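Supplementary material to the annual report.
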Amino acid sequence: MLYTLGTSCEICGDDISQESRCKMCGALVCADCLVKSNGLCLSCEEAKCYLCNDYLASRACNLCGKLVCEEHGIKKDESTICDECRTRDK
Ligand SMILES: [Zn+2]
Ligand SMILES: [Zn+2]
Ligand SMILES: [Zn+2]
Ligand SMILES: [Zn+2]
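Predicted assembly:
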């Protein structure tokens, strides 16, 4: 039985002809699912922090709804406030 390991895209499941890995999560993805300008897979691209564009966003600001990373979204009681809203609020 012949089986291939890690040759299908982790996002769309298509066969990968040319190996490309996401710089952020390391997922093996096809060329269609990799953003060439920054080397990120589509899921990381969608989940990036709105403020720094560097880290994966893990929460959304309760005021503006933007996705932010832990560095840029401060938890306040039960809600998350991003840096942008925090500085504007003052
Ligand atoms: Zn793909
Ligand atoms: Zn990724
Ligand atoms: Zn950030
Ligand atoms: Zn905000």
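The mean pLDDT is 89.
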